[in-house]
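Review form for a predicted model. The reviewer records the input and the model, then writes brief findings.
Reviewer: anonymous (R2)
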Amino acid sequence: MSPATITIMITVLMALMFLSGKFPFGLTTMTCCVLLVLTGVLEISDAFGGLSNKTIVMVAAMFALSTSLQKTNLALKLKGTLSAMSGKKDLALIVVLFAIYFVMLLIMPGIVAMALIIGFLDALPDTGEVTPSRVIMPLLMFNVVWEGTVPVGMGATIDFSTNAYMESIVAADQLLVFGNTVSVKIIPAILMIPVCLFIWKLFPKKQLNMSAVQSKEMKESTLPQWKQNFVYACFILVIIVLVLNKVAFFGKIMWIFPAACVVAMGLVGVMNPKELTLAVCSDTVWMLAGILGVTAALTNSGAAEIIGNMLLSLISWTNNSFMILLIVCLFTAIMTTFLSNSGVKSVLTPLVAAMAVAGGMDPRGMIICITVASGFSFCFPTGSTTCALAYAAGEYNPFKIAKITLPLLFCLCLITAFAANLFFPVWG
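Model under review:
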């Protein structure tokens, strides 16, 4: 059996284990990593490379920071404020949460923003209507349409970075210019705002593991005031470093700085060894590390390229511009459900660009559809590290919430294809 076939079979096994609901997410992905090594698809260093991945290190440390904040009086005050709003001012609370998250997405990567907002959600009570289990997934949906949409920071370079995948394939006048991608991406992003403000009501209200811990610890802090101040200082410094991540120095240390603060808090006695271990070795961390191993196998084994070539055969049956763009969107969205965003983009962009040139088509609309739809990763944990983090923290079974996520995904693809056809029709 070829490595690609084995990888696809193991990915299907992972989906079935997620579906059963009988196994922790971390155990599921680690099982797949072990199988990938035993079958010879990956070396140990590749299968378990996620354990040393900078994103995983940062996320694990952010969980520990969140735990340390729960040991201070600030957490108690924040819980009281959110409790007062919950039930009486649910819409206002939702608007505030999404406004905060929007600002975060302007100044930091999505995975960092998600890890940070989950820490804030620890303070939400489980007794009201607005609970962490109902808010995390809508925040992920908001993330996938708004991250990189505003032309600030990385959002300002999206057209030029896309050109790097096809500049040797297409003519100079068919390359993207500043604002091309945003002109399409902004339409589904704006339409997603009212959806996110109300769709949270459709998700199950349940107590999460992090909420269970919270309920035991949410009482007057026993830490001396100087230790509480030390926690506040560490948290503020982490926020500053994350906000300044575009500055070269801070960009280098942002992934390890939260861990440095956690180490410092351990040394001064803010958290004991057991608390530190539970915080940084949660099921979420193991799941994230395992997801990276599976997506690496999908890319390295050639499975992604096999899937990508299927797109070319799907497009060949129609000459309708909108239908071609819709097929590209849907296919990209399906691929990004199991592969990383950047992996999908790097595989499909040159393939579609070459196909467009050979067929006398304008590639810009299709390439923009790939760029936009490759971010629609909210239907399955393997879509991205941000997606995996949200699924693990919210304890979502992807198949149980598919009745919400799949129709929304289809609508986003329809809107994106319509916008792309409006500005960049395939036949000019």
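Findings: Confidence is low (pLDDT under 50) at residues 211-218.
Further findings: DSSP finds 22 helices and no strands in the chain.
Recommendation: see findings above.
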